[in-house]
Amino acid sequence: xxAALQLLPRxxxxxxxxxxxxxxxxxxxxxxxxxxxxxxxxxxxxGAVLPGPMLHRALSLDPGGRxxxxxxxxxxxxxxxxxxGFGKAVLGMAAAAEELLGQxxxxxxxxxxKGIRAAMEHAGKREMLLKPHSRVQVFEGAEDNLPDRxxxxxxxxIQQLAEGLTADDLLLVLISGGGSALLPAPIPPVTLEExxxxxxxxxxxxxxxxxxxxxxxxxxxxxxGGLAQAAYPAQVVSLILSDVVGDxxxxxxxxxxxxxxxxxxxxxxxxxxxGLRAALPRSVKTVLARADxxxxxxPSCGHVLNVIIGSNALALAEAQQQAEVLGYRAVVLSAxxxxxxxxxxxxxxxxxxxxxxxxxPSIAGASVExxxxxxxxxxxxxxxxxxxxxxxxxxxxxxxxxxxxxxxxPTVLLQGSGKGGRNQELALRVGAELERWPLGHIDVLFLSGxxxxxxxxxxxxxxxxxxxxxxxxxxxxxxxxxxxAHNDSHTFFCRLQGGTHLLHTGLTGTNVMDIHLLFLQPx
Length: 523
Ligand SMILES: Nc1ncnc2c1ncn2[C@@H]1O[C@H](COP(=O)(O)OP(=O)(O)OP(=O)(O)O)[C@@H](O)[C@H]1O
Ligand SMILES: O=C(O)[C@H](O)CO
Hints:
By secondary structure, the chain is of the alpha/beta class. The protein contains 22 helices and 15 strands.
């Protein structure tokens, strides 16, 4: 337990209110105490997937320092290791890798978001920074998650490094979310601008990350296994931090070390579906036509070891453990929450209602219809790993406080021009839902936060809400529906009670999608 609490120093100091559930102290427990615990559990989830700890779990040197161990594989070390990386969490991953590899690391090139070094320095996160005489060259680029000239230069440097390797070398590839935009290498004659436009159009028309990255792979020299091919005959080990539901290695950062299984027909189907086929630039048509007749087929990746070293599920598992230490019955609902944010919010609202009735059957709670509606909605959302029955089972009977943990990435279809993010919008919508289903004797709190610490283009990571949200807002003259109609959740939370419902962590240096926490605490 001491070790577990090390991750959570503030939790260790906080009074363990739920342990005293049913007693007078618990009855005095305020929403703020619950909110503090929610924020601490969020931090513990993120703490489990920080670059340093993750790297050290995945990589080790044998006692003589002659072999690099990755899972159950060993690689000979003789000052023959090269490193490349691209993604939002790669700076800290590279710092941890360089520290571990020492003199065995010959050279590295990484492509990371613009301003990340300054932000980490400013936040005092020195462990995320490379040392002054690092062998790793850093390129910053892809402002606003879009490929740009800086990212293109980085991609060229990465390609050159990979192409210069021999069969005696080992290439360590560090990959995390945001990697696609940070590694643009369009196949000529496609230009960077054309690729940028196509990516933007697909995203704006609601293409999924799977669809978007299928197109990116078809138009890129390095994605879809291209980087692995460039590094051949060197051995390649890819360490991947997943930011995609289900952790598909071929999708994350467009799978630069995974042979693409898609063909031109798949691309044309996607482009057709989003009404983009007719207006395709000639260059894109040329590249797709060439790919169709390429006798070599997709790159082969037999020399590659792809390893997922961090994921949303891992973060949730840590927070679940911490919640149990705090006396909650903690259930992981899913690490793959997806779907329209409105439906996801309705789902959490109904879940709280149904769960509340199970927790204290005597209260006027959910009806049979609401139970059925919850299951219907769950089926509609098509969440692959949803443990709804298990979660509801944990709530049967008068057994104390419950914490439901989930993760993933709901979708917001932007209609207004307000300021917000996925997590703040979800929290606001859940707050509105909770108000519709008052649960007399149970304190309910919902928190949603982006594990990277930045929710959309805002400075907050997310927000937390309780059923009293709408009435508190009304008292301050804020109308929830109006803010939602403008996708203006951040402005709403900034104004509500002086911003106390906002979750502020600063940039965390990692990225495993969003974390959702739902607490039900009988009074
Ligand atoms: N005003 C808004 N209200 C709600 N959501 C918004 C708003 N503006 C942007 N978003 C959402 O924020 C997301 C983009 O935010 P961000 O740049 O944090 O990317 P991300 O998807 O979190 O990146 P990653 O997946 O790499 O973490 C999009 O899903 C977009 O729909
Ligand atoms: O970079 C990307 O492609 C997305 O973040 C998904 O990994």
